[in-house]
Amino acid sequence: MRCSKIGVVIVAGGLSSRMKDFKPLLSIGKRSMIETTINNFRSVGADEIVVVTGYRANDIEGRLNNSNIKFVRNENYEFTQMFDSVCIGLKELKQRVSMIFVTPADSPFVQKFTLKKMIKEMGNSDLKALQPSYKNMNGHPLLLSSDAVGEILNHDGTNGLHGVIDKFKDSYVNLSFVDPGIILDADTPEDYLKLIEYNENKDIPDVELCLKIQDYFNVPGNVREHSIKVAMTAVGICGHLLKKGVVLDRKIIVAASMLHDIAKGIHDHSKVGALRLLDMGYDRVSEIVRTHMKLEYIPEIITEKEVVYLADKMVQRITPVSIEDRFAAKEEFYKHDEDILSNIEEKKKLTVNLYNKIFNN
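Below the sequence we write its predicted structure tokens.
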């Protein structure tokens, strides 16, 4: 029976010469670079994580002392390449796991969605290597099958890891994602500042990224048009509330409006869409998408969630409609089913009350 464990090799033994500082221990938010990277892989259930150290090995090992991490050292880090450190890590995990992620320590923001999709693709195929890309640029992490490890360890080092991967041919696949974290690392001080900036804004996708997410999930044209119209309507509601002194986050409202139907056509599409966005790291957007079909209650103070919900009910396809007209078709269709009709009437009543709270009070 094939082992189903997932391993990770994190290479953290270099001199960080271009950075002019020690990359693995640079701060990203509340954690260091390497701690953030480790947490990413733990979020998808990685069974064994090996960190290959070299330069300032004691500092890394001391920082991660209580993290249940296996450390191995590249004692010749000054005179060897990254490929040599990768091989040291692979030897430690050889025959103990079925697939191994390989990544540098300074690639901390790859989405959980990306990692899960890579694991699923590898598990359902005979691939030896799988690499993610964003905007046609390959990035991290690389995912290797256990079958690939022997060939890599026997490689003479020419062109490093890419040299042996080139030999895999049809056993290598590149997967495209809507995940900027794939191509972000910290080779230079400028790169590090970009990581800091990305970390502060990564929770809410901008309009360009929302459009790419729609593309990725093959959202039909009519659903896209509806989503754009909902976003515009929601922005209008924001403007009205602002006059009443209610200040909301328009960026999150626009994102949630544009993405609320990314799973349209799938059963329980609000839940499916919300789970997709949650795995992509958009927690707040995910929660709004989850509730866009049905609100549990109207809060005393209106939030972004209620604005997106109401905007969706004020748009039929791409046409502005009254609340009455928005529910009329469903009321007619289910008029002989008392239970369903009762739920529709309850939802309609809540929607009318929300509309009145925003526009009439």
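Residues 206 and 255 are 7 Å apart (CA to CA).
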